[in-house]
Design brief:
The protein is built from 22 helices and 14 strands. With about 600 residues, the protein is an alpha/beta fold. It has helices at about 5-20, 50, 55-70, 90-100, 130-150, 165-175, 185, 190-215, 220-225, 225-240, 245-270, 280, 285-295, 330-345, 360-370, 405-420, 430-450, 460-465, 475-490, 510-530, 535-555, 565-585, and strands at about 30, 40-45, 75-80, 85-90, 115-120, 155-160, 275, 300, 305-310, 315-320, 350-355, 380-385, 385-390, 460. The mean pLDDT is about 90. The chain folds into three domains: about 5-90, Arginyl tRNA synthetase N-terminal domain (Gyrase A, domain 2, 2-Layer Sandwich), CATH 3.30.1360; about 115-390, HUPs (Rossmann fold, 3-Layer(aba) Sandwich), CATH 3.40.50; about 405-585, Orthogonal Bundle (Isoleucyl-tRNA Synthetase, Domain 1), CATH 1.10.730. The strands form four sheets. It has a five-stranded parallel beta sheet with strand order 7-6-5-11-12, with helices on both faces. Helix 1 crosses helix 3 and helix 6 (about 165-175) packs across helix 8 (about 190-215). A hairpin with an 8-residue loop joins strand 1 (about 30) and strand 2 (about 40-45). The chain is globular and about 90 Å long. The protein binds one RNA strand of 77 nucleotides through strand 1, helix 15, helix 16, strand 14 and helix 19.
RNA sequence: GCAGACGUAGUUCAACUGGAUAGAAUAUCGGAUUUCGGCUCCGAGGGUUGAGGGUUCGAAUCCUUCCGUCUGUACCA
């Protein structure tokens, strides 16, 4: 048993023994003690004064006395108002370290037997990925890894929006202005080529609107009647009728886009276990409409359209099927939710989608629960905030989007530039150097986007994101590389790293104890990050850990330490820190170098 | 209009979900190294937590009224 748990157990016993009352174990919790006070863990007694029937000080003092005599880990305590600060015995830190150090599966919690699907990325095939998608992809990947580490079986899913009027727009523009251009002939990545025609459509469409308005049409009429739009709508009809020419063009252009996306995904370091295509799923959900009508969850209006009434839940009436019997967005989302369950029998389903769709998912989940789906309670919308730029909002029409490919390239180049200036990579082959730049550039970018609470909107400052100091990915990567250098040297001079080699230690420095406390926290942080779907919690933890290690490194000698037990211990502590950093960083999708 | 989210040092973010004197990073200023990697370490200044009221032992956090920013509110996806 972890000694934090044993302290909590002790507190529970203390309540029984001192105050003859029972408190549930899950109501008790320890917080790390603030630096200004003596001690490592703090128990706040205020909430339990009713049970003790005593003043805060007296309650805390009685509990402290009990713990000091009955729990081995607690060596001493002090009371400040209602705060009981516990001082942990030195030997306890050492045995705690041994426990962590010798654990083979540190950083992986036991299976909980539950299956969860994480859907993320979900791009449109008419334009390339931008900064907002980067946040989505990094978040989705990391949350999936965190859930795995927390004991879930995880299925990563991508739902590709590969059909609809927006794709037809790119296709129409390509027919008009493409002149048979291909990725090869243009030298453009496939997704960028498609995006180019999407933009072309928009400019020509606007021009047509303008001339129609000059000919006397209202703005609304002009929008509806512009020939290009009519063509796109006609093309969508043909696509739905499986017109062979349209399907051929659609296949060709989508093929280019997928090739482009795959390259981008590879560089981002994300992957998927299953890919769903809307061209296959867009007709799903109509049987659920029937089911809902039969169950009385939905109702029909005179014109034949089908609705759900969510006014009792604080929402509106919401359309689930048009009067002409065709689907809307939510129809196919209902169908896809069932499909996911049929395919994998998942207990939970996480949708990583921006917060502008909060309302939509609120509606969808309420419907699925009303329909009594077994996976209903496990539906979760991981709603993340927008990414802003210092210049304001990203708007594709105003050309202020930050392209994902360009940004990644820029980050890697900056990393290369930085590293070359420092001149610390002599002996690297060309390939090793390239790999390192990639690691650092992508590490900086991912860390920058993941260190912020996903729910909040965030500001992307290009200058700050490529900083290598402070709360950044490269700072943590550097810390790892530095430890790796120590481990190489330790191996060279043959330092004994077995737990037995420092079994006789009794005194620890403050930074050493603090490091152990942090290392021991790792699995708790994984659990918390997974429960909150927040990689930011882990990112913050890794930064704290790297900082604490650097303090330890600056204060205490390792190879200059004469005492061989202490030397072995400090190398082992370094090794455990490196392992934790490496594992932790991998959970937020970042690799760490051995040298940099 | 209605609904929801957000507002914290100059700036970007935290605050263990109601706990101690609101913390980091960055920028600014000052210091450390005959040493295992200076992309390091130590220190200083910087705050009426948008404003007011309430709840209680205790509020950045909960309730309420304003102010401000954003999002949603389509038989679009």
């Amino acid at each position: 048993m972890n000694f934090q748990d044993s302290i909590l157990q002790g507190i529970q016993d203390a309540f029984t023994s001192c105050f003859q009352t029972t408190v549930a174990l899950d109501q008790l919790s320890l917080a790390p003690t603030k630096k200004e006070f003596e001690g490592s863990y703090t128990f706040v007694v205020f909430p339990f004064l009713k049970q003790s029937q005593l003043s805060p000080e007296a309650t805390a003092t009685q509990l402290g006395n009990y713990l000091k005599t009955h729990v081995a880990a607690v060596k001493d305590f002090n009371v400040v108002k209602g705060f009981l600060n516990l001082v942990v015995a030195q030997e306890e830190w050492i045995s705690l370290f041994n426990q962590v150090y010798t654990s083979k599966i540190f950083g992986q919690l036991p299976s909980n037997g539950l299956k969860v699907m994480v859907e993320y990325s979900s791009p449109n095939t008419n334009k390339p990925l931008h900064l907002g998608h980067l946040r989505n992809n990094f978040l989705g990947y990391s949350v999936a890894e965190l859930l795995k580490a927390a004991g879930y079986e995880v299925i990563k899913a991508n739902l590709v929006n590969d059909r609809g009027i927006h794709i037809c727009k790119s296709m129409v523009a390509y027919q008009h202005f493409g002149n048979g251009e291909t990725p090869t002939s243009s030298g453009l990545k496939g997704d960028h080529l498609a995006g180019k025609y999407y933009v072309l459509f928009d400019t020509h469409y606007k021009a047509q609107q303008k001339s129609l308005m000059e000919a006397g049409q209202s703005e609304e009429e002009a929008k509806k009647n512009a020939p290009l739009l009519l063509e796109a709508q006609e093309m969508l009809r043909k696509w739905e009728d499986q017109d062979s020419d349209v399907i051929a063009l659609w296949n060709q252009m989508n093929g280019w886009v997928y090739a482009g996306f795959n390259a981008t995904y590879q560089r981002m370091g994300v992957d998927f276990d299953v890919t769903y295509y809307e061209s296959n799923t867009y007709l799903l959900g109509k049987d659920i409409v029937e089911e809902g009508l039969a169950k009385g969850v939905f109702f029909k209006k005179e014109n034949g359209s089908v609705w759900v009434d969510l006014t009792a839940e604080g929402l509106d009436e919401k359309l689930v099927l048009r009067g002409d019997g065709t689907s809307v967005y939510i129809t196919q989302d209902m169908g896809t939710a069932d499909l996911k369950y049929q395919d994998y029998q998942i207990n939970k389903s996480v949708y990583v989608v921006g917060n502008e769709q909060d309302y939509h998912f609120d509606v969808l989940f309420k419907i699925m629960r009303k329909l009594g789906r077994s996976y209903g309670p496990g539906l979760y919308h991981l709603s993340y905030g927008m990414v802003d730029l210092p210049t304001g909002k990203m708007k594709s029409r105003e050309g202020t989007v930050v392209d994902a490919d360009e940004l990644m390239e820029e980050m890697v180049e900056t990393a290369a530039h930085h590293t070359k200036e420092l001149g610390k990579i002599e002996g690297f082959t060309e390939a090793q150097a390239t790999e390192l730049y990639e690691m650092l550039g992508m590490g900086a970018l991912k860390y920058f986007l993941l260190k912020v609470d996903p729910k909040k909107r965030m500001l992307f400052n290009p200058q700050e994101s490529i900083e290598f100091q402070g709360n950044t990915g490269p700072f943590i990567q550097y810390s790892h590389a530095r430890i790796a250098a120590i481990l190489r040297k330790a191996e060279q001079i043959g330092v004994n790293l077995s737990a037995e080699s420092f079994a006789g230690l009794s005194e620890l420095a403050e930074t050493e104890a603090a490091l152990i406390q942090l290392l021991n926290d790792f699995e708790r942080k994984i659990k918390q990050a997974a429960e909150d779907y927040s990689p930011a919690i882990l990112a913050q933890y890794l930064f704290d850990l790297a900082k604490e290690y650097n303090r330890f490194y600056a204060e205490l000698p390792i190879f200059h330490e004469k005492d061989s037990q202490l030397q072995s211990f400090r190398v082992a502590l370094s090794l455990q820190t490196a392992k934790t950093i490496k594992r932790g960083m991998s959970l937020i999708g970042i690799q760490v170098p051995e040298r940099m």
